[in-house]
Amino acid sequence: MILLDSRCPLLHYPPSLASYLAGLPNRKIILVLTKVDISGTDRANAWSDYLKKRYPHVRVVQVESYIPKELGPNNEGTSKRNRRFEPHLPHTFRERLVQALREVHQELLQPPEKIRGDEVKMKHWKPSVRGEVDWDGVLSARGDKVGQAVGGAIVPRPSAFDPTTEDGERPDETQDSAEVVEPDFLTIGLIGD
Hints:
The protein is α/β, with parallel strands linked by helices. It has helices at 15-22, 36-39, 41-54, 91-108, 113-116, 119-124, 135-140; strands at residues 2-5, 30-34, 59-62, 66-68, 85-87. The longest helix is centred in the middle third of the chain and has 18 residues, at 91-108.
């Protein structure tokens, strides 16, 4: 997921980054337009349309980032200009984001086109991602529970799992599929702030 400020997303997603990420094998990209509440719906929709046309192989999701902070009794006279905000992701935006993650996850569970017609390669192919994810748990997770639904908020430990190479083959095609261990985690990379 690449987090892009919806006020000017191209600052955070230059052509060089787009080109680099497009060249990585077995990777799916979700562009997340943040701060839609600040930039406004019209601008965010225009950027979404532009990004979808320019990069048709990626998903684009919009999210709001902040809500006005409730002021205490001593701050009643604070002007609009001096308002304070706190992080917030409304449920509808959370649903859209989790749905995009879910769709990308389903794609990663399918074998690459290069090996679909080859019975030998299909026999040995295993997804390079965790197969089962509690998506309802991801959607409802809050506070310190975020991350627990997909295996925990800790660094994944090495396992016997052997990811596929760029062409979808295992480095050692003779490896017994019973030895391959499913990853403990669904790993999602974040670029941006």
